Amino acid sequence: MHFSTVDYVIFVVLLVASAGIGLYYAFSGGRQRTTQEFLLADRSMRCLPVSLSLLATFQSAVAILGAPSEIYTHGTQYWFLGCSYFLGLLIPAHIFIPVFYRLRLSSAYQYLELRFSKSVRICGTMTFIFQMVIYMGVVLYAPALALNAVTGFDLWGAVLAIGLVCTLYTALGGLKAVIWTDVFQTIVMFAGQLAVIIVGTHQAGGIAEVWRKAQNGSRISGLDLNPDPLERHTFWTLGVGGIFLMLALYGVNQAQVQRYLCSRTEKEAIMSCYAVFPCQQIVLTLGCLMGLVMYARYGEESPLDQGYVKSNDQMVLYFVMDVLRDLPGLPGLFVACLFSGALSTISSAFNSLATVTMEDLIKPHVRPMTEARATLLSKMLALAYGLVCLAMAYIASLMGSVLQAALSIFGMVGGPLLGLFCLGMFFPWANSTGALVGLASGLVMAFWIGIGSFVSRMSASVPPVINATVIPDVGNMTTAVMTTLITSKPRSILLIVMTNLIQALYSLSYMWYSAHNSATVVVVGLLVSFLTGPWKEKDLNPGTIYPVLGNLLFFLPERYREKLCCVTPLEDNVSHLNSTKQNPVSNTAFLLPL
């Protein structure tokens, strides 16, 4: 299967149009001469482009390739992830956005210095940089891999094409260019997916026939209420565990926070978060429909089993080329859809990485520089991160399933960051020592589980033996532990139980990574804070605490709530913070009415 001339033209038009938007904003308006314009679009963006950019930022080629493949292989259980979108977007809209917006921040990690200390801010920033650079490797590699698998296009040539075009318009056009290219690329993503679904459904005999074949093949999943957290996908892992993944993405991730902060008003920032909800549901539904249409075409004889592709992540593009082979231009449209997903995500990462590096690592530690020099340095940082992420694509080539790998990285690293912000916003007693120890504990736990899970899967074909007793499958923990206890010597019981528990931890569904790791940060952070001397709410910078405990414990008398430090609302007036030590962002923190 190969591209036609029309397909290549459509693909090139996407790259040229994206670069053109960057050039337009580089030479129009303020011409990106200030860091305020380059990094925050002069805080002038309206609701619609911001909401589409929020959607596009993490609706990448990873999801376009991974979701249909997941549905084809395992059925529609994955659709229940949509249940997590409601709280996963409502909580950021009414908790995180008001706090960040009223403090007039440029970087989400400036909040950590206002709430804790400069060392916590630096640790949070470095963790975010690590998270995004690794994730960009996955996002950059995924569409290039698919293109190479079905058309023979040079793999690393495709990586360079995406990376360099993205770096170009991000470094030249700033956040305005990133947001408006996201809008254009979102339209291309919708068009590409719809084209494949419509043509594929028609060829399968209609939507009723697609549904019938999916039902006969047991691909239409019911509501699985199994509470076992070791099960990969159930309603609870997707609908509840997914909330924490969404909070890590839409609540505290700098790429998304930066879009909230560039909005004209706080109300528009909140409305843009609301607008993402129906868009996310549509995107998830399109991915599920494409997976069902794939099953209607191939049934149990998948392209992978037939040897046409080498991995699940290549099946979607093979299916597209198979369905659209007689319709010149449409394969190119879908590949443009894939590349749009990659470009939107990568460009957002470059811009956010440049922002946190400039605001959190450079400005606080060097003498004041001119605006022109600061803007030039920001552009050079965006360029440098583009080159770094090109190199990281090689590491992504060593990973397994693209979808699970990407989500696992966000859960492993995004979870502890979510826990750090929750510790600061919701618990006035937490101090900087507790925050640092909590973050470190969360990261250690995250990588222990993540790496242990990988090693466990690699060695699954050879069951471990302890004192001649084979460790049983941990799918059913009660049966596993009881069987092991009955067949073991007494002196081996404790060791075997611990081994089973650790193995169960390694078998934890990747959808619970964010929840588990963020909870670790909060619990450890609070314990250490109480041991080293808890802080009092009156000693904290105004506006850094959201009174969630006060709202939840409304039924208690006020004197008890005062003792629990949970009665003070977000500030209702503009407060002046007197020293730079108190507020590293500016001389004034603007704290508007709730």
Rg calc = 25 Å
Structural class by SSE content? mainly alpha
Instruction: Round the mean pLDDT to the nearest integer and report it.
Output: 81
Poorly predicted segments: 461-482, 572-594
* Strands ordered across the widest β-sheet: 1-2
Q: Can you tell me the overall shape?
A: globular
The share of residues in helices is 55-70%
Task: Please report which band the strand proportion falls in: under 5%, 5-15%, 15-25%, 25-35%, 35-45% or over 45%.
Answer: under 5%
Terminal CA distance: 58 Å
Membrane topology: Multi-pass membrane protein
Subcellular location: Apical cell membrane
Subunit structure: Interacts with PDZD11.
Pfam family, one: SSF
Short overview:
With 594 residues, this protein is mainly α. It has helices at residues 5-26, 35-40, 47-58, 61-74, 85-102, 110-115, 118-151, 155-204, 207-216, 235-239, 241-250, 254-261, 266-298, 315-323, 330-362, 371-396, 402-426, 432-458, 477-486, 490-506, 513-532, 548-552, 558-563, and strands spanning 465-466, 469-470, 575-576, 588-589.
Task: Write up what this structure looks like.
The chain is mostly helical and 594 residues long. Helices cover 68% and strands 1% of the residues. It is built from 23 helices and four strands. The protein has helices at residues 5-26, 35-40, 47-58, 61-74, 85-102, 110-115, 118-151, 155-204, 207-216, 235-239, 241-250, 254-261, 266-298, 315-323, 330-362, 371-396, 402-426, 432-458, 477-486, 490-506, 513-532, 548-552, 558-563; strands spanning 465-466, 469-470, 575-576, 588-589. It starts with a helix and ends in a 5-residue tail after the last strand. Residues 461-482 and 572-594 have low confidence and may be disordered. Keywords: Biotin, Cell membrane, Glycoprotein, Ion transport, Membrane, Sodium, Sodium transport, Symport, Transmembrane, Transmembrane helix, Transport. One of its GO terms (biological process) is inorganic ion transmembrane transport. Interacts with PDZD11.
